[in-house]
Write a structure and sequence with these properties.
Length: 702
């Protein structure tokens, strides 16, 4: 028996999914354990082993690999809980990270914030100026060394940083992506002074044109690299001590995994690792169910995440924004807000009810957890409304205190708004639905898609309780709640289903027509790097898939668009076809006639993505077919609609449902790791894999 395990470490819960080569899939959920999240990983592995009837050591000895997704890097950057690092750059260019190319004033800000110019600031520098130092050297735009590296000056600057307690240094020299010789020499000099200092080079982390983005990407990768290295080293050692046979893999923002030993060198690539797990899982399940256009929504304890799959492929980005800084990371496009089950409800100075972005997280947790939390959350509201069982979460292992939930809502929301506790809880529930609906509209409609052409997948511990309502806000006709053996651990299922994915890129700006020999040389170099990286992963692949693409733009414009480049030897026709794809896609994104081809088209950045397909991935097993009507396991008053109050509502035990069972709303379905609400006027049908399909009664023929 061979196992694959996916572990999703969230801010509130740690989820795990295990599948074997016989088609069995099991899942487990345990509270996360900040600040040492590795304890939560070991806890959830214990729960998996219990279900197998084996010890953890026996289970890990038969494990092909563990795929791990973590929010630790992203959370550290967002909350700025990172160690101080040093920065070395070319003389005369230090202030580029403080000027921020003007972008630092508007990147990552909401439209509301952008309207208040005087209230904006740029007080979000990545490091103090005393830790940003310059060295004498110069490489020109063609990669020629114009001024040699002053090695004595480098040594002096490194000593200065070291004396100030700096243990990690980001190196980003001008035009280093065209010729990295000076950056590599700086790393050698640092190692000669102190080999334990962590060093990140822009030519390896972000070999792209544009100084500010390259600098910020390298600095942020340096900020999280040492912590990620220590965490993964300790976790992998703990797993190996317990008998793990295969490697520990880490999910990346691009939707694929990489060996834990490789991840710290490209630490910034892991910042969206947990965010992408659900999109990968949705893509896998979508292929099984025949859905090619999917809105993937993951509502955990801390965040609400949205990703799109269009025509069978996840939407991708080449950059993201963290704390107003552009980050050069190939990633699956995922939008996130702090609106999970643990999101705190509060009343602002104007008397408006707000949800999030702050979360109660795992510690202290929602008020109903009884762990010292006093702030009301979405989870507290759902408990007061009768949506959650008073018997607790995780099959009763996580006790819930309804009186503490009521008290938190009474003091922080109900009394300030002049409402009853029940109406205040209903208002929290409605505000959550409206807020998530707004993000969905931004992610889908404002991106130019018709939501009626999509199926919405809803998962996570909290998602199934809200999904029918926020789908209605968006106008989606069908909702799929992936249940079966994975339930709220669906993102962990995506991690277990992920293959190894690596990407290499290189900026080499040139006006079209580009010399095909030059373009072919760039792609050949990148493909060689990708294949060498795949060889280092220590895994055997069924096959390796290579994708080539190039970022293009109109001359004198900044908007770059990524287009695929076909396989095989490049010639002028191949580059012309890529240019035609660029013009079509540009028109789709920005409108017909918005481009100006007479100015010329430029090829800016070349990229190769490699995917090592692993021998097997989890397949959800079929569910036994129903032989009769579903049985109601209990009834209780549930408050689902403002103005209707509590309604006597049937409660169904998911473990008793079978393929073909139909549940008519209003109803609540209790799953060991989540709770599903089927509102009035909707019907939920269990499919052959155990997933619940929620549609309006009119669609269902009722």
């Amino acid at each position: 028996m061979t196992y694959v395990i996916g572990v999703d470490v969230g801010g509130t819960f740690t989820d795990a999914v295990l599948d074997d080569d016989s088609g069995s899939v099991i899942a487990a959920k345990a509270p996360s354990t900040p600040p040492d999240y590795s304890r939560g990983v070991l806890d959830v592995l214990e729960l998996l082993a219990e279900q197998l009837g084996r010890s953890v050591e026996e289970m890990l000895a038969d494990t092909h690999h563990v795929a791990h997704g973590t929010t630790s890097s992203l959370n550290a950057l967002v909350m700025r809980q990172v160690p101080e690092v040093g920065f070395l750059t070319t003389k005369g260019h230090r202030d580029s990270i403080f000027i921020m190319n003007v972008e630092g004033r508007y990147l990552g800000r909401s439209p509301h914030e952008l309207q208040h110019v005087l209230a904006q600031d740029k007080d979000h520098h990545l490091l103090p100026k005393r830790h940003a130092l310059e060295v004498t050297e110069r490489v020109d735009r063609d990669g020629n060394v114009i001024v040699a590296l002053d090695e004595d000056e480098v040594r002096a600057q490194v000593h200065k940083l070291r004396e100030d307690g700096i243990r990690a240094i980001a190196v980003s020299l001008l035009w280093a992506f065209r010729n990295p010789v000076h950056e590599r020499r700086v790393r050698e000099l640092v190692a000669g002074i102190d080999p334990d200092i962590y060093v990140a080079l822009s030519s390896e982390v972000s070999p792209r044109i544009r100084e500010f983005a390259r600098n910020s990407t390298t600095i942020m990768s340096t900020q999280v690299g040492p912590g990620l290295r220590d965490y993964l080293t300790n976790l992998e050692a703990s797993l190996k001590d317990r008998g793990l046979a295969g490697p520990l893999l880490v999910m990346q923002s691009n939707g694929g995994a990489v060996a834990a030993s490789e991840a710290p060198a490209q630490a910034i690539s892991t910042v969206g690792s947990v965010l992408t797990g659900g999109v990968v899982g949705s893509s896998q399940l979508g292929r099984r169910l025949g859905h090619r256009n999917i809105i993937s929504t993951d509502v955990g304890g801390t965040t609400f995440l949205v990703g799109l799959i269009v025509d069978g492929e996840p939407e991708r980005d080449t950059t993201t924004v963290i704390n107003h800084h552009p980050i050069n990371v190939p990633t699956l496009r995922v939008h996130a807000i702090g609106s999970g089950g643990g999101a705190i409800a509060w009343v602002d100075a104007g008397g408006n009810l707000r949800i999030g972005p702050h979360s109660a997280q795992a510690v202290p947790g929602p008020a109903c957890y009884g762990q010292g939390g006093t702030e009301p959350t979405n989870t507290d509201a759902n408990l007061v409304l009768g949506i959650l069982p008073t018997s607790g979460l995780l099959g009763g292992r996580k006790a819930l205190d309804v009186e503490q939930a009521r008290e938190a809502i009474r003091t922080k929301v109900a009394e300030p708004l002049g409402l009853s506790v029940e109406d205040a809880a209903a208002a929290i529930h409605a505000a959550q639905n409206a807020q998530t609906g707004d993000l969905l509209r931004k992610s889908v409609v404002e991106a130019g898609h018709d939501p009626r052409e999509f199926v919405l997948y809803a998962f996570g511990g909290s998602g199934p309780a809200f999904c029918a309502k926020y789908a209605t806000h968006l106008g989606v006709n069908e909702v799929v709640v992936p249940l079966g053996p994975v339930a709220s651990a669906f993102s962990a299922y995506g991690l277990a289903a992920s293959d190894i994915a690596l990407a290499q890129e290189l900026s080499d700006p040139a006006q079209l027509p580009v010399d095909p020999v030059r373009a072919e040389k760039n792609f050949a170099q990148l493909e060689d790097q990708v294949r060498q990286g795949l060889d280092r992963q220590g895994l055997k692949f069924d096959r390796v898939e290579i994708v080539r693409e190039v970022d293009m733009r109109y001359a004198m414009q900044l908007a770059e668009v990524t287009v695929p480049v076909g396989d095989g030897p490049l010639d002028e026709n191949a580059m012309d076809e890529a240019a035609q794809r660029f013009e079509r896609k540009y028109a789709e994104l920005y409108g017909q006639g918005s481009g100006f081809s007479a100015a010329g088209i430029q090829a800016i950045t070349y990229r190769v993505r490699g995917r090592g397909v692993l021998p097997f991935s989890p397949e959800l097993p079929p569910l036994e077919k129903a032989s009769g009507e579903p049985e109601v396991s209990a009834r209780r008053p549930v408050y689902l609609e403002i103005g209707q109050g509590f309604v006597d509502t049937p409660i169904y035990d998911y473990t008793a449902l079978r393929a073909g069972h139909v549940v008519t709303g209003p109803a609540v379905i209790e799953v060991p790791t989540t709770t599903v609400v089927v509102p009035d006027g909707r019907t939920g049908t269990v499919d052959e894999l155990g997933n619940l399909h929620i549609v309006t009664n009119a669609q269902n023929g009722a």
